[in-house]
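Journal club prep — side note

Before the paper discussion, L.F. wants everyone to see what a predicted structure for a comparable chain looks like in token form. Sequence:
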Amino acid sequence: MERSTASDTASEKPNPSHHSTGTVQMRNKNANSHHDRLSQSKSMILSENVKVPEPVVEKEGYLLKAKIADGGKKLRKNWSTSWVVLTARKMEFYKESKQPALANLKPGYKPECVDLCGACIEWTSEKSSRKNVFQITTVSGNEFLLQSDIDFLILDWFHAIKNAIDRLPKERSCTSRNLEFKLRRSSSIELLNSLDTESKEPKPEHRKSLIFRLSYSASDTNDRNRVKSRLKKFISRRPSLKTLQEKGLIKDQIFGSHLHLVCEHEKSTVPQFVRLCIKTVERRGLDVDGIYRVSGNLATIQKLRFVVNQEEKLNLDDSQWEDIHVVTGALKMFFRELPEPLFPYCFFEQFVEAIKIQDNATRIKSIRTLVKKLPRPNYETMKILFEHLKKIAAKEPVNLMSTQSLGIVFGPTLLRPEKETGNMAVHMLYQNQIVELMLSEYSKIFGSEED
């Protein structure tokens, strides 16, 4: 009994070796957990220091870009050249090529980015008069136009962007976005039409706003219909152009009008503007080098044209018309803008055939016969003009304008076919020769029969 008690007592006493072993295990466990925490913190620090790789550039290059909408709000179209960088999810627009420009970018510079997720891309010919234009519309309502004159280049860009968009998840369809924009801007009739064509069953979240907009725009639609009906009545009852001209509300134009109409309006056979220009040139332009060959300032010529068309009192001795080349330029413009030239279209082939005649006397006689057949305003205006040009040619030693030079200047202006054909160069040669002959033989062509 004592032995057993002693043994039991001994067994109840703690074993020092066993206790030391448990202590070591606890220390090792604490050390291991501390080591794990250190390794975790180190991995976190390392992960923070590791740079996230930049998106892979799928395509980059120069394109013309114009942003025409920002968040659904229309913007003024302004084309500019941009360096476009396309990645898997977005596009970036730089002012210059990205790589060389990185060193020159200002701190904080951010390129304009376009999120392609849910975006739409389509060719458009209505948004710009340029060729090869396509439009990108984003989910946020931004709209961009991209263009290049090089066909294969813009086509390659279109397919690259479209493929990038197709690979991305479809956040919202183009149809729903277009429907929302139309709900925002259209009248009630346009809303119903767009709903019938694009979405037979509008989404539940759109129904309340649709009903509100329909009721809100009902009165506005009635006002518009009332205005339209009044405009139709006004247009149907408005007087004709001839009536307005007879009442003096619309004045007849001098430039761009038929010669006989100008003469009828002025009750003369030669337009007053032609007489005034000739008189001015003969007073202060006969000795000017290159008269009629040298061009005047186009802006000033157009200003003179406007003054003449407005029937304002014209004084060609005014300081604003002091450049004689402006006066000669306006006179040439008057003849160039005649709907039918001074030599009528029906006479063109006859004059060409006459100038081809080899015998000089017969040629002059044929030209004279044709000139006599011209309508009175054409004949009288032609006579006074060629008499003036003959005086210019007489001063050739001073102004260096020979009959040949004047033929080159006035031939295509006074004489041209109604429809241009492939013989333009040949026609121009004949036009010059006809004017040159009429100047050289002025007295025989425009003189009386006795002469």
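L.F.'s comment for the group: Strands lie at 59-70, 73-74, 80-86, 90-94, 112-115, 120-123, 133-137, 143-147. Keep this in mind when we get to the figures.
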